[in-house]
Write a structure and sequence with these properties.
The structure holds two protein chains of two kinds. Chain A is of the alpha+beta class. Chain A folds into two domains: about 5-90, SH3 type barrels (Roll); about 95-140. Chain A is about 30% helix and about 30% strand. In chain A, the strands form two sheets. In chain A, strands 4-3-2-1-6-5 form a six-stranded mixed β-sheet. In chain A, strands 7-8 form a two-stranded antiparallel sheet. Chain A is globular, with a radius of gyration of 16 Å. Chain B is mainly β. Chain B has one domain: Roll (SH3 type barrels), CATH 2.30.30. In chain B, about 10% of the residues lie in helices and about 30% in strands. Chain B is built from one helix and six strands. The chains are: A alpha+beta, B mainly beta. At the A-B interface, helix 2 and helix 3 of A face loops of B.
C-alpha cells in the first residue's frame, strides 16, 4: 500500500474510491483556497464531473483518494455548483440497496485480496443486510492500510 | 500423497486440495466454474491459503488432473500467486460493439467473481 500523501502532491488521474472502496473515477482538478487551504477535488466520474468538498475527502494516498461518501452520492449531484461543476451529494445517512451491494462487493474484494476468510465473508455479507446505517455498513468492510 | 481416484469436474467438491506441479499443496478448491449443460469445464476458483483468504482463478488448461481429494495443476507453486483474481464486471453504460466485448478470460474472471457471492 502507498504512503499517505497531501493534496499538494495529488496528481490528475489519480483513482478515486468511495467509502466502501468502490471505484468512483479519477481526479480531474485539485481546488485550493487562498492560504493555501484544501478546498476539495473535482472527480471525473462516469456520470460527469463532480466537485467533492474537502470534508468528504477522507484520505489521500499516493495512488488513491478515498472519499467518505458513496459512489451513488458522488454520481448524484447536489444542489450547488463549484466552478460550474455540480457538487457531490453529502450528509446522507439512510441506506439504499445499492449501498448494500457496494458494501458486499467491497467485502468480496477483501476476501479475494486475502483480508477475510470465507466464513468471515459469509458472516459479514449477512450482516450487511441487517445493517441500518451507512456507518454500520462501513464498519463491516476491513480497513486497508 | 494419496489423491484418490481420478474423477470428473462434475463431481469435484469445494475443499479438495489444490496441488502445484511440484506436488505441494497450494490451496483448496473454492468453486468449480463450468457449464454443465454444455459439458464445458472452465476452471476453478481456489482459496490460496496465503493469509485468511485470498482467491485466484485457475483456467481449465492449467488443470492437469482431477482426483477425489485433490486437483493437480500444470503450473509450479511460484506461479500461483500470479494467477488472476476474480474481478467484478464493469458497469456497462453503452454498447459500442465488438471493441467492447470481453476476452474469454475476462468473462471467466467475472463469472468467478459472481460465484464468490453466489449466496448473497
Amino acid at each position: 500500500m502507498s504512503e499517505p500523501a497531501s493534496y499538494l502532491t495529488l496528481q490528475r488521474g489519480t483513482p478515486v474510491v468511495d467509502r466502501f472502496g468502490v471505484p468512483v473515477g479519477a481526479v480531474e482538478r485539485v481546488l485550493t483556497l487562498t492560504g493555501p487551504y484544501f478546498d476539495g477535488i473535482i472527480v471525473r466520474t462516469e456520470a460527469g464531473s463532480r466537485f467533492v468538498d474537502a470534508p468528504e475527502v477522507r484520505r489521500i494516498r499516493g495512488d488513491v483518494v478515498e472519499l467518505s461518501i458513496t459512489r451513488g452520492d458522488c454520481e448524484a449531484p447536489g444542489l450547488t455548483t463549484v466552478d460550474g461543476v455540480p457538487e457531490a451529494r453529502w450528509g446522507r445517512t439512510e441506506m439504499t440497496e445499492d449501498d448494500i451491494h457496494d458494501a458486499i462487493d467491497a467485502l468480496k474484494r477483501a476476501y479475494v485480496d486475502d483480508l477475510l476468510d470465507a466464513h468471515e465473508l459469509g458472516d459479514r455479507c449477512e450482516a450487511a443486510y441487517e445493517a441500518t446505517t451507512l456507518d454500520e455498513l462501513q464498519r463491516l468492510v476491513p480497513e486497508r492500510d | 500423497m494419496d489423491h484418490g481416484a481420478p474423477i470428473s469436474y462434475l463431481t469435484l467438491s469445494p475443499g479438495a486440495d489444490v496441488v502445484c506441479s511440484e506436488g505441494d499443496v497450494v490451496g483448496k478448491v473454492a468453486h468449480v466454474l463450468a457449464d454443465a449443460d454444455e459439458d464445458v469445464f472452465d476452471g476453478l476458483v481456489i482459496d490460496c491459503h496465503r493469509g485468511p483468504g485470498g482467491a485466484r482463478f485457475v483456467d481449465a488448461d492449467q488443470v492437469d488432473a482431477i482426483y477425489e481429494r485433490a486437483v493437480v495443476l500444470t503450473i509450479p507453486g511460484s506461479q500461483v500467486e500470479h494467477l488472476p483474481k476474480p474481478t467484478p464486471a464493469p458497469a456497462v453504460l453503452e454498447n459500442h460493439g465488438v471493441e467492447d466485448s470481453e476476452s474469454g478470460l475476462q468473462r471467466k474472471l467475472h463469472r468467478a467473481w459472481d460465484l464468490i457471492s453466489g449466496n448473497y
